[in-house]
Amino acid sequence: MNVTLSELQQWMRAPEGEHLEFKEAKQNFHFEKLLKYCAALANEGGGRIILGVTDKRPRRVVGSTAFADLARTKAGLIERLHLRIEGEELTHPDGRVLVFTVPSRPLGMPVPVEGAYWMRSGEDLWPP
Fold first, then answer.
1. Strand 47-51 to strand 86-92: parallel, antiparallel, or no bridges (unpaired)?
2. How far are the Cα atoms of 28, 56, 93 from residue 87, in angstroms, in the given order?
3. What percent of the chain clears pLDDT 70, i.e. is strictly above it?
4. How far apart are CA 61 and CA 41, in angstroms?
5. Pairwise CA distance, residues 24 & 30, whole Å
6. Domain boundaries, the chain
7. Which has fewest Cβ within 10 Å: 2, 44, 57, 67?
8. Architecture (CATH level 2) of domain 5-126
């Protein structure tokens, strides 16, 4: 897909919502949490989760060392969610940014993780 720095800047100005999630994730980010956010985005029509950017506005790039082996992370997401999640690494002057692009779930087939059908509730995941 090749996300550009210009697109990143546009997303950073937009509010978080059902289709856009930012996480600072400077040092790490738990794979299970990424799974739940990806499932929630898929269950709500698809979207993006961006790591290495503050989630409070005005947002800024802080860089992330999470998921050093991006190919392995993408393979794990596909294996667990049965959806093709795209993951890209952007080299920003202020640090590495990861963009995971999540498609919408197939019609009539919600995506479960740990027996729950995850959704976003404000800035949190539901069910808690």
1. unpaired
2. 16, 22, 19
3. 98
4. 22
5. 12
6. 5-126
7. 2
8. 2-Layer Sandwich (3.30)
